[in-house]
Amino acid sequence: MSIEHGEGRVKRLVFTGCATTLALACAIGASGAGASVPGCDLSRPAVVYRPGGRAHVPARKRLAPCRYDTGAKALEPSLDFTNDGRILFQAWELQAGLPGGVPPVPQVIRSDSSFSTWQNVSPKGPVASLDPFLTVDHRTGRVFSVNFLANGQPTCATISYSDNAAESWTSSPAACGGFDGESIAVGPPVSAKPIGYPDVVYYCTGTTPASSPPTTSPVCSKSLDGGLTFAPTGTLPWPAYEEKAEGDKFGPWAGHPIVGPDGTFYIPKRFAGQPEVAMSHDEGLTWQRVQVADNRSGGETPQIALDDSGNVFYAWVSAAHLPYLAFSRNEGRTWSAPIALAPPGLREAAIPRPAATGDGRVAVAYVGSTNSPAVPPFYEYCDALLSECTDAGYAGVTWNGYMTLIPNALARTPKLETATVDPPSQPLLVGGCSADGACKANLDFIDMKFGPDGDPFAAFVDDCAVARDFPPIFSPQLGTCGDYEGEGIVGRLTSAN
Question: What predicted TM-score, i.e. pTM, was given to this entire model?
Answer without folding.
Answer: 0.93
